[in-house]
Fold:
Amino acid sequence: MSNPIFTSTLIILRGNSASGKTTIAKQLQEHFGQGTLLVSQDIVRRDMLKVHDTMGNLSHDLLFEITKYGKGKCEFVILEGILNSHRYGEMLKELIRYFDENAFAYYFDLSLEETIRRHNTRDKRHEFGEDSLQKWY
Structure:
């Protein structure tokens, strides 16, 4: 096991689907460089675990543990996703405390119309439509 070598900064990017969270998170990871941990809610929930975003789903604990892993090992840890405050709010507060308040949280607040416009330009636009976006909004 490696010894902690960094004071780690947690960056949380939240917002609706198609708001640009993943794009910005990847750009930040590229900017900060090697060893920057990027934890994506979609990757953990949809790709790794194949679960729906319901209260208490398996991804909740795994997102928490992966994000915690970066403290002391990575200078920057980026957590991004919709991260609905009803389901993930307490977890996010606990992570901020775990990172000794060395955290920045951003919410991407786009209108429903802009969210739909952006969604319609994405490769995964066929996975779900405007009706789903409206329910989630």
User: Anything to note?
Assistant: The CA atoms of residues 48 and 59 lie 9 Å apart. The mean pLDDT is 89. The longest strand covers residues 9-15. The beta strands are 9-15, 37-40, 76-81, 103-108.
